[in-house]
Design goal:
This protein is mainly β. It contains no helices and 14 strands. It has a six-stranded antiparallel β-sheet, with no helix packed on it. The chain has a three-stranded antiparallel β-sheet with strand order 2-11-12, with no helix packed on it. Strand 5 and strand 6 form a beta hairpin.
Length: about 200
Amino acid sequence: FSFTFVFPRKLPSQTFSSNTPPEQLVMVFIALYMKADLSNVTNLHAPAEHSWCLTVKQSDGSEERGPVYVCDDEEHELTGSKGTAHFVLKWEGAKKESYINVVRDFKGVTRPYCAEDSGKEVPIVVFECRGIEPIGWTPEGGYNCESTKGTRFENIDLSDDWCEYDEKASEDEASLEISNVTYSFKTVKEPKKGK
C-alpha cells in the first residue's frame, strides 16, 4: 500500500498588505478536500475538538509555517479586538494578527467521507481564514469511522494505510481498509444567510 500526497494548487493571493487591519482583511473560506480508497468503511470523519495538522502560508507573502495545529476547542483572543479565533499568528513585519477558524458544519459543503465516496474528493472541513491560508495537511491520528455493518472505530491514524477486521461482519465484509489518502484545498463561497 502506498501513501501519496497531492500538493494543492496555489490559491490566488489576496489583494491586501500585511499592515492592513484584520477587520479589513479579506475573509476567505478554504475547504479541505480528502480523497481515499475505502473498503467496507463508511462515515470517516474528524470528531469534535480534533486538532488539524496544517502547513500555513501568509496570504499576501511567501512566509510559511508548519506544522501548526488548529483545533476548534481552543479560543485565542485577537489583540485589539473583542473577537477570538481557533488559531492566531502574527507574521514577521505585520502590524496585525492573521487567524483561522475551523468551520465544521459549513452548510451544504462539508460532510463525512462515506463508502460511496471511495476514490472521489469530498470536503471534510472548512477553514475561515484572514491573512493566512492552509497549503498542507498531515492526516495524523484522531479520526473515526464505521464499518459498513455499523461497528465503530476511533482514533484512526491516517498517516499510513489503515487496516482492521470487523468480527461482527460476514467474511466478505470483515476486512476493512482506508488507503491512498490525498488532499487538496479549494476556496468555497460563504453560504447565504438563512439557507
